[in-house]
Amino acid sequence: MWILKGDSSLKIKVLPEDFVVREKLKIEIKPSGKYKIYLLTKRHWNTVDALRFISKENKIPLEKIGCAGRKDRHALTFQYISVPREYTINFNKENVKAQFIGYSDDFVSPLILEGNFFEITIRKLKNKDEKILQRLNEVQQFGFPNYFDDQRFGSIQNEDEFIGEKIVKKHYNGALKLYFTTIHPEDKKEEKERKKKISELWGDFEKILPLCKTKVEKNIIKTLLKGKSRHYLIRALNLISKEEMSIFLSAYQSYIWNRTLIAVLPYYVDLLKPVKGKIMDYLIYPILSTKSLNNLKNLQIPTVSSKIPYVSDIVNNAILEILNERGVKPSDFDTKKIRSWYFKSFLRPAIVFPEKLEVFDFEEDDFYEGYYKLRIKFYLPAGSFATMLMKSLTV
């Protein structure tokens, strides 16, 4: 369940069917081709876990399975995955299944994801609230800040827990410790105790080795038993899969981008309201002047890397100030020693507009007796978060 912070009575994701996501890809499905394309339908599973189970059960290397985006577990999602044609996926569980739909000469990746269609049900409305209809109209007219939302930051609970930042600062030992000891919301009591024990023993790798559960964990600790120099720390980090490393480093990149937008918005907007997030407060505007709207809808902010493209003094100075505050500089983002991933800068729109917005009539809430629910449909371009649109409705 996900509660809209601006009004504790409003709820989304009460049921997976309350948050439906369907991908739109730029791909041609053919009778034959280099890759097999499957439609992955799931609820109660996140994408990464689903792909790991598919990989294991079908004996397909995880890196051979292409996907365009990671989808939340608290939703009903329809997304596409691909494998080279020599592989076949057979996977049909209660809450996740893969259905073969044809072939293509292209594999599924974020590069061919155009966007996502959403169908969201907002529950526990006290009455047929005109305010939420007004905010939907304003969001359609003025857009909303295009922040990366909380789910981008995984299990990070505060701003000092970024594995990506540890790597950028070359604090490789600290990065590895976070990898082993970060507690996830879904961790059971036994797993939490295991991670706390590893944290207490960190540095005494002989005692940690019997506590390791996965092959990767064991191989990392065996590497660290050979030596604690930077050489062995980097070798250990390179044992982490490309998929996991990309999550860690892109989370930090997304955090810096969000902080930049927070710093930049006051130059363009007079009225900004904070909406609480997991590790930061997001600044949201209710409406924009014509001048502000014209400025912001054309503003793009780069993600951080060792080579940051120039946008304007306001934007680029904001990035440098935030990096300085964090104790890093652009050149630190040259992470060539980490083989599995590197930072690449790309431009991301500062604000985004929902397309094809449909608002349906209020209905009696069939989950919360005595309340109403409201169903909406819309489309967002790739990389934009529907949950951020929902946060914007609360200001």
Automatic annotation (TrEMBL):
Coiled coil: none annotated. GO terms for biological process: pseudouridine synthesis; tRNA processing. Residues 143-353 form the TRUD domain. Gene3D superfamilies: 1.10.1510.30, 3.30.70.3160, TruD, catalytic domain. GO terms for molecular function: catalytic activity, acting on RNA; pseudouridine synthase activity; RNA binding. PROSITE patterns: TRUD, UPF0024. InterPro entries: PsdUridine_synth_cat_dom_sf (IPR020103), PsdUridine_synth_TruD (IPR001656), PsdUridine_synth_TruD_CS (IPR020119), PsdUridine_synth_TruD_insert (IPR011760), TruD_catalytic (IPR042214). Keywords: Isomerase, tRNA processing. Belongs to the pseudouridine synthase TruD family. This is tRNA pseudouridine synthase D TruD. It comes from Caldicellulosiruptor bescii (strain ATCC BAA-1888 / DSM 6725 / KCTC 15123 / Z-1320) (Anaerocellum thermophilum).
